[in-house]
Amino acid sequence: MLQYILSFIILISVVVFIHEYGHYYFAKKYKVGVTDFSIGFGKELIGFNDKDGTRWKICAIPLGGYVKFFGDSNSASQPVSLSKIDSKDHDKLLTTKPLYQRAIIVSAGPIANFILAIFIFATIFMTVGKDVGIFQLSIPSVRTSNFFFRTSTRSCVANVTRLTNVIIQSPL
Domain count of the chain? Predict the structure, then answer.
Protein backbone atom coordinates (compact mmCIF):
# COMPACT_ATOMS: atom_id res chain seq x y z
CA MET A 1 0.00 0.00 0.00
CA LEU A 2 2.82 2.38 0.87
CA GLN A 3 4.37 1.67 -2.53
CA TYR A 4 1.19 2.87 -4.28
CA ILE A 5 1.07 6.04 -2.20
CA LEU A 6 4.73 6.86 -2.87
CA SER A 7 4.34 6.09 -6.57
CA PHE A 8 1.33 8.40 -6.75
CA ILE A 9 3.20 11.21 -4.96
CA ILE A 10 6.18 10.88 -7.30
CA LEU A 11 3.98 10.75 -10.40
CA ILE A 12 1.84 13.73 -9.42
CA SER A 13 4.96 15.70 -8.45
CA VAL A 14 6.50 15.13 -11.89
CA VAL A 15 3.29 16.17 -13.65
CA VAL A 16 2.95 19.27 -11.44
CA PHE A 17 6.62 20.19 -11.99
CA ILE A 18 6.26 19.97 -15.79
CA HIS A 19 3.04 22.02 -15.66
CA GLU A 20 4.47 24.75 -13.44
CA TYR A 21 7.76 24.80 -15.34
CA GLY A 22 5.77 25.63 -18.49
CA HIS A 23 4.48 28.78 -16.76
CA TYR A 24 7.91 29.55 -15.32
CA TYR A 25 9.79 29.13 -18.60
CA PHE A 26 7.64 31.58 -20.55
CA ALA A 27 7.46 34.02 -17.65
CA LYS A 28 11.26 34.17 -17.64
CA LYS A 29 11.34 34.37 -21.43
CA TYR A 30 9.09 37.45 -21.38
CA LYS A 31 10.96 38.94 -18.40
CA VAL A 32 8.18 38.58 -15.85
CA GLY A 33 9.48 38.39 -12.30
CA VAL A 34 8.94 35.06 -10.55
CA THR A 35 9.15 35.05 -6.76
CA ASP A 36 8.09 31.45 -5.94
CA PHE A 37 8.09 28.08 -7.70
CA SER A 38 6.37 25.55 -5.49
CA ILE A 39 5.62 21.86 -5.79
CA GLY A 40 2.87 21.26 -3.27
CA PHE A 41 0.98 23.45 -0.84
CA GLY A 42 1.23 24.22 2.85
CA LYS A 43 4.36 24.34 4.95
CA GLU A 44 7.67 24.41 3.08
CA LEU A 45 9.73 21.27 3.66
CA ILE A 46 12.79 22.12 1.59
CA GLY A 47 13.76 25.01 -0.64
CA PHE A 48 16.44 27.29 -2.03
CA ASN A 49 16.80 30.63 -3.82
CA ASP A 50 18.30 30.82 -7.30
CA LYS A 51 20.44 33.65 -8.71
CA ASP A 52 17.36 35.52 -9.98
CA GLY A 53 15.72 35.53 -6.54
CA THR A 54 13.12 32.83 -7.22
CA ARG A 55 12.34 30.64 -4.22
CA TRP A 56 12.16 26.98 -5.36
CA LYS A 57 10.39 24.86 -2.77
CA ILE A 58 8.75 21.53 -2.02
CA CYS A 59 5.82 21.77 0.37
CA ALA A 60 4.00 19.34 2.66
CA ILE A 61 0.87 18.62 0.58
CA PRO A 62 2.04 17.34 -2.85
CA LEU A 63 -1.29 17.65 -4.67
CA GLY A 64 -0.51 20.65 -6.84
CA GLY A 65 1.80 23.60 -7.09
CA TYR A 66 2.09 27.19 -8.17
CA VAL A 67 4.29 29.84 -9.69
CA LYS A 68 3.97 33.20 -7.96
CA PHE A 69 4.76 36.16 -10.17
CA PHE A 70 6.30 39.42 -9.02
CA GLY A 71 3.61 41.79 -7.74
CA ASP A 72 0.94 39.13 -7.12
CA SER A 73 -0.93 39.80 -3.90
CA ASN A 74 -2.47 36.32 -3.58
CA SER A 75 -2.62 32.87 -5.13
CA ALA A 76 -5.16 34.02 -7.76
CA SER A 77 -2.47 36.29 -9.29
CA GLN A 78 -4.35 39.45 -8.40
CA PRO A 79 -1.83 42.27 -8.69
CA VAL A 80 -1.11 44.80 -5.99
CA SER A 81 -1.70 48.42 -6.84
CA LEU A 82 0.81 49.83 -9.32
CA SER A 83 1.35 52.81 -7.02
CA LYS A 84 2.81 50.46 -4.38
CA ILE A 85 5.50 49.18 -6.78
CA ASP A 86 8.56 51.12 -7.90
CA SER A 87 8.24 52.44 -11.43
CA LYS A 88 11.53 50.73 -12.37
CA ASP A 89 9.94 47.34 -11.50
CA HIS A 90 6.77 47.83 -13.58
CA ASP A 91 8.30 45.94 -16.50
CA LYS A 92 8.55 42.79 -14.29
CA LEU A 93 4.80 42.67 -13.68
CA LEU A 94 2.63 40.15 -15.49
CA THR A 95 -0.20 42.68 -15.73
CA THR A 96 1.90 45.16 -17.70
CA LYS A 97 2.81 42.66 -20.42
CA PRO A 98 0.91 42.55 -23.74
CA LEU A 99 -2.11 40.28 -23.91
CA TYR A 100 -0.47 37.70 -26.18
CA GLN A 101 2.44 37.27 -23.72
CA ARG A 102 0.07 36.86 -20.77
CA ALA A 103 -1.94 34.30 -22.77
CA ILE A 104 1.19 32.32 -23.61
CA ILE A 105 2.37 32.35 -19.98
CA VAL A 106 -1.02 31.22 -18.68
CA SER A 107 -1.53 28.50 -21.32
CA ALA A 108 2.05 27.18 -21.16
CA GLY A 109 1.30 24.91 -18.20
CA PRO A 110 -1.53 22.92 -19.82
CA ILE A 111 0.38 22.77 -23.11
CA ALA A 112 3.40 21.38 -21.24
CA ASN A 113 1.14 18.66 -19.77
CA PHE A 114 -0.17 17.85 -23.24
CA ILE A 115 3.37 17.49 -24.60
CA LEU A 116 4.29 15.33 -21.59
CA ALA A 117 1.34 13.02 -22.32
CA ILE A 118 2.39 12.67 -25.96
CA PHE A 119 5.96 11.90 -24.88
CA ILE A 120 4.84 9.29 -22.33
CA PHE A 121 2.49 7.52 -24.75
CA ALA A 122 5.08 7.59 -27.55
CA THR A 123 7.71 6.15 -25.22
CA ILE A 124 5.38 3.39 -24.05
CA PHE A 125 4.40 2.56 -27.61
CA MET A 126 8.03 2.46 -28.80
CA THR A 127 9.32 0.36 -25.90
CA VAL A 128 6.42 -1.84 -24.75
CA GLY A 129 3.74 -1.61 -27.42
CA LYS A 130 3.41 -4.27 -30.08
CA ASP A 131 1.52 -4.20 -33.38
CA VAL A 132 -0.90 -7.09 -33.52
CA GLY A 133 -3.37 -7.57 -36.34
CA ILE A 134 -6.43 -9.78 -36.27
CA PHE A 135 -4.96 -12.04 -38.95
CA GLN A 136 -1.64 -12.32 -37.20
CA LEU A 137 -3.43 -13.65 -34.12
CA SER A 138 -5.59 -16.14 -35.92
CA ILE A 139 -3.20 -17.62 -38.48
CA PRO A 140 0.05 -18.60 -36.76
CA SER A 141 1.76 -19.47 -40.07
CA VAL A 142 1.25 -15.89 -41.32
CA ARG A 143 2.87 -14.19 -38.30
CA THR A 144 5.75 -11.97 -39.29
CA SER A 145 7.02 -9.00 -37.34
CA ASN A 146 5.07 -5.79 -37.94
CA PHE A 147 3.31 -6.83 -41.16
CA PHE A 148 -0.39 -7.22 -41.85
CA PHE A 149 -1.35 -9.65 -44.58
CA ARG A 150 -4.43 -9.74 -46.77
CA THR A 151 -6.17 -13.05 -46.85
CA SER A 152 -9.09 -14.38 -48.82
CA THR A 153 -12.67 -13.58 -47.77
CA ARG A 154 -13.23 -17.20 -46.84
CA SER A 155 -10.32 -17.27 -44.39
CA CYS A 156 -11.40 -13.87 -43.00
CA VAL A 157 -14.81 -15.27 -42.12
CA ALA A 158 -13.20 -18.33 -40.56
CA ASN A 159 -10.82 -16.13 -38.57
CA VAL A 160 -13.59 -13.91 -37.22
CA THR A 161 -15.62 -16.92 -36.07
CA ARG A 162 -12.61 -18.31 -34.18
CA LEU A 163 -11.42 -14.95 -32.82
CA THR A 164 -12.49 -15.38 -29.20
CA ASN A 165 -10.76 -18.73 -28.89
CA VAL A 166 -7.62 -17.48 -30.59
CA ILE A 167 -7.32 -14.37 -28.39
CA ILE A 168 -7.66 -16.46 -25.24
CA GLN A 169 -5.16 -19.09 -26.41
CA SER A 170 -2.65 -16.91 -28.31
CA PRO A 171 0.30 -15.44 -26.37
CA LEU A 172 0.80 -11.75 -27.15
Answer: 2
pLDDT tens track for 65-101: 999 988 776 656 666 666 677 777 778 888 888 999 9
Instruction: Find the domain containing 138 and state its range.
Output: 134-169
Catalytic residue IDs: 20
Residue type, 136: Q
- Per the CB < 8 A criterion, the answer to whether 37 and 56 are in contact is yes
User: Does the global pTM surpass 0.85?
Assistant: no
Which of 141, 144, 171, 169 has the alpha carbon at shortest distance from 155? 141
Residues 51 and 86 in one domain: yes
**What's the CA gap between 155 and 163, in Å, rounded?**
12
**Chain centroid to CA 142: how far?**
40
Q: Are residues 58 and 107 in the same domain?
A: yes
